Amino acid sequence: MTQTLARFSARRPIVTIGAWIALVVIALAIVGQLLGSATTTELKLSGGFESAKAVAALERLRGGPEPISEVIIIQSETLTVDDPAFAAKVNTVFQEIAGLGEEIVGEGAVNYYLLSALAPEAAENLVSADRRTTLMTIPIAGDFDEAAVNVKEVIQVVERADEADDFRVLISGAASVSYETNEFATHDLEQGERVGIPVALLILLALFGAVVAALIPIGLAIVAIIIALGLVAIIGQVFDLVFFVTLMITMIGLAVGIDYSLIIISRFREEMDRGLSVQEAVARAGETAGRTVLFSGLTVVIALCGMFIIPMGFFQSLGLGAILVVIIEMAATLTLLPAILALLGPKVDLLSIPFFRRKGVEESHEHREHGFWERTTVIVTKVPWLSFLIVAVPMVVAIVYYFQIETGLNGVETLPDGSVTKEAFFVLEEEFAFGLASPSDIVIEGNIGDPQVQGAIAKLNQLLIEDPRFPIPPLLDPSSSSEIALIKLALPGHPTGEDAVALMSVLRDEHIPAAFSGVPVEVNVGGQSAASAEIFQVIDQYTPIVFVFVLGFSFIVLLLVFRSIVIPIKAVIMNLLSVGTAYGLLVLVFQKGFATDLLGFQRADVIDAWIPLFLFTILFGLSMDYHVFLLSRVRERFDQTGNNTEAVSYGLRSTANLITGAALIMVAVFGAFAAGKTIINQQVGFGLAVAIFLDATLVRSVLVPASMEMLGKGNWYLPSWLHWLPDLRVEAEE
């Protein structure tokens, strides 16, 4: 099939290239119009979860989505709220924000002085103990995504007020945190592109020795990224997709797309050097390297399908983005690239670089037989047990750190320094409780007027007041109706932090059952803390299922491709070793703080809970690419000679340059994103870069040949009762 596609595209290059250009133009138009409204920073769970039920009940109570409120902090080092100058400052800021208009600010804004006239006791909750800090609550117009845009103007007012005099003015809330998160994520995306693409280009120049050949993979990756973003922009109009999907498409698109093109172009040049015509060289590259690309891409896609098992829009969005860009990369590599190569022919080597001059087939073969990788293989296979232990033991030591991992959700406190909402977090935490900005919602549905229900509400209120773990008293929301009652409860710490999530378990498992046992009502808890607790529960529940799915699929595929039961077992172990090492290094660097200053990373108390599972699915798919590419050459040679040692040596030296080059490009791309400002991008980029580097160097160049030498012909053992299995070869016969 890949040969047919290559021949068809090469014979009609203008038509093929024109079709892809048309797709890019259409995608660009769609991205410009729809991408902004297609994604969100709001984490949502499906309707079956308790927090989602609470949200649905509140929407019924209010006749629509809950208003998004921001907390404005005004603080003085010398004055108190009782001083006229303090009151003047508060009123000035309040009036300026209110003056932004109803399209920006909703109804119900409150400050200390307004509330003092209506409810003096309640007003004291808006003042710190030393009376030098006060809060005002500002509803933001629109739903969550609209509020995250509208809040920009409120932030600008706050920043101007903060610079005006001796008062400190800050803002915090769901909308402002979302806005700043978007801003930092966009910065990281642009930086990743600015750094990753040039570094990848330099590596390609060194590999190909020609400017034209090096530019083609970059161009194909950009084409696939644009089209994938266009598809996401359309899908996002129907389904909620998290903002991180755009970063995922760019990161995976650059890494995978460049790799796939690298394999095809390298094979095309080899076939041209052997004397084949341009058309035949394209067809041959499609038949051989094209099959590798197709198999690799399908393997990555199926591994990524593990994300759809998890009933969370966050994982499903990331999986969708990665799958879309990989599929488009495959399609472009198997059709657009052959068309480009057919038009260029020998001109693919235009603008050659003297120092990196490309060697011909015979010269390259001679170089590989006496080169670095051949010498490495000789050393490894001479002392396989020692070689294996020298590499495996440090990796196992790194894996030990994984068992000290603390997972959670890094919140506003890990935003880069200078963030307005980060500063507000620390003030709220010190003077009040940050949970005031995002309180939990205890939603009670039933006959609220029933004395039994009223008694249960009073009992819950009393239990919470008496429990020192809940320092802020609960408040009955005045919007409660005869059918739905709402109690607001502010938890100490960040709403997604470990402490708040632990208190959510106390609330759900202890106090609510104690108060409402036998009472005919439905009680659900919503809010950020409730959703975070459920996210952790979902991840813990579905992680084993995803692992079994991905590992089981990998085992079956390798069993069919290599007709050996030993190869897939060993491959699974090797891949787990590289992924586990990446996990351990994540803990060592980010949690333990090892070399964080040297690497330019932030230290964090937790690794984001979704990252280990995400890294596992991505890395397992990508590492299968290298593993199959290497072992298919080893198996091909073994079938020809029956000499295991020589087959391992041939497989390593014939694939090492491509695997190493492709891996370096991935490391460069992922490393560029790891250099971003946000802790999430740092953790994801670092984890991916480290695992790919280890997998393509130490694992492929030392552990694989050493283990294959130790096992000898046992590598290819297949029990007689499995001989009926089909023989699926990746590489076409030479």
The CATH architecture name of the largest domain reads Up-down Bundle
Unreliable spans: 360-367
By CATH reckoning, the class of the largest domain would read: Mainly Alpha
> Beta-strand level of the residues, as a percent range?
5-15%
The neighbouring-strand order within the major sheet is 8-9-7-10
Task: Kindly report the CATH topology of the largest domain.
Answer: Multidrug efflux transporter AcrB transmembrane fold
Assign the CATH superfamily of the largest domain.
Answer: Multidrug efflux transporter AcrB transmembrane domain
Rg computed from alpha carbons, rounded to a whole number of angstroms? 30 Å
Strands, count: 11
What gap, in angstroms, lies between the N and C termini?
17 Å
- Helices, by number, come to 25
- Chain oligomer state: single chain
Structural class: alpha+beta
Q: What do the pLDDT scores average to?
A: 82
What is the share of helical residues? 55-70%
Envelope shape: elongated
Number of domains: 4
The major β-sheet equals: 4 strands, antiparallel
Molecular structure report:
- This protein has 734 residues and is an alpha+beta fold.
- It is built from 25 helices and 11 strands.
- The strands form 4 sheets. A 4-stranded antiparallel beta sheet has the order 8-9-7-10, sandwiched between helices. It has a 3-stranded antiparallel beta sheet with strand order 3-2-4. A two-stranded parallel ribbon has the order 1-5.
- The longest helix has 35 residues, at 174-208.
- Mean pLDDT is 82; it is low at 360-367.
